[in-house]
Amino acid sequence: MSKSSILDYTKDELSKIIKPSFRAKQLYEWVYKKYVNSFDEMKNLPLELREELKNNYNLIPLKSAYIEKSKDGSKKYLFMLEDGKTVESVLLPMKKEKYDDDGNLIHQTRYTICISSQVGCKIGCSFCLTGKSGFLRNLTPGEITSQVLMIKKDNNIAENRRVNIVFMGMGEPLDNLENVKKAVEIFSDPLGLAISPRRQTISTSGLSSQIKKLGEMNLGVLLAISLHAVDDELREQLMPINKAYNIESIINAVKEFPVDARKRVMFEYLVIKDLNDDIKSAKKLVKLLHGIKAKVNLIFFNPHEGSEYKRPEVKDVLGFQDYLIKHGVLCTIRESKGLDISAACGQLKDRKGK
Ligand code: SF4
Q1: Residue 96: pLDDT above 90?
Q2: Cβ contacts of residue 229 below 8 Å, gap of 6+?
Q3: Ordered domains of the chain (ranges, CATH)
Q4: How far is the CA of 300 from the centre of ligand 1 (A)?
Q5: Residues 273, 242: Cα–Cα separation, whole Å
Q6: What is the model's pLDDT at position 251?
Q7: Which of 53, 62, 114, 243 is the most exposed place for a label (fewest CB within 10 A)?
Q8: For this structure, is 88 an active site residue?
Q9: pLDDT for 26-37, tens place per residue?
Q10: Between residues 107 and 271, the one the model is more confident about
């Protein structure tokens, strides 16, 4: 049986495994601040402890298997896990470096890292390649956090640089809630990756009962709902999970979710030509979101091979956005980054992975 990764443990858990407990803090520093690749490099840990760790645990539980780089700077990673299965993550530079006239740096590039929480997925959304290949297994906390660690290392992103995390890659994070919770804790730990929970977004297909549980955990993370449709009939066609958790149940769960005073719940809306791109749908959406501190993110559907859906017209997406804004709903249109690479979830794995 393969060894578990030492990255599966929060700092508190580690301090119970490694004695004396301050060694756990040292180990955390080596991993998350100094980006080491082996226990041997942890020079301030006694040799005996390093040997013990080597014998009982792995360090980084995944390795980079393939990288695709887009012209717009986004990079898609295919990672191979210890058991040979693969998952995808994406690095998205959100804003470019900016300098003033004297050549001084005004702001640094901001990054968002989109990570996977499962190998495959049970939800089976009709527009998603990952959903089509079924579910294989949950990722461990270490397999989740390592995606960010590896991407930061690969791009020389300094340990103190802020990054945003979105649980929006392969899998339904709320279907792997305990491991996702632990990953959030490791990300948030000042001695870990020190990423504030307010910079971590959990995106769900709308498992209402799990949204409630996540809310009760009070982790301080942001919530994003993949809504995509405003009536149950179309949503069932796009996302069969809607039969178990309909739109009303999702909206009710969101209304109870604790939202930071400065933040909003994000509603992702994949715009598909002739299906949900009309003003009637925009009108229904405004009604649905009444009373919620919401922000809508319109996403152009990006057709993949064999897909039955089409990319919407720009004018229809703009018209949809305009209607929402005029009726008091914050709304952005997501830039389709990485159009020249396999940017939609599951596309790279479909071509290269297992
Ligand atoms: S879109 Fe997300 S929830 Fe739906 S099948 Fe794909 S990975 Fe699963």
Answers
A1: no
A2: 235, 237, 238, 239, 242, 247, 275, 276, 281
A3: 4-58 (1.10.150.530), 115-352 (3.20.20.70)
A4: 16
A5: 21
A6: 97
A7: 243
A8: yes
A9: 999 999 999 999
A10: 271
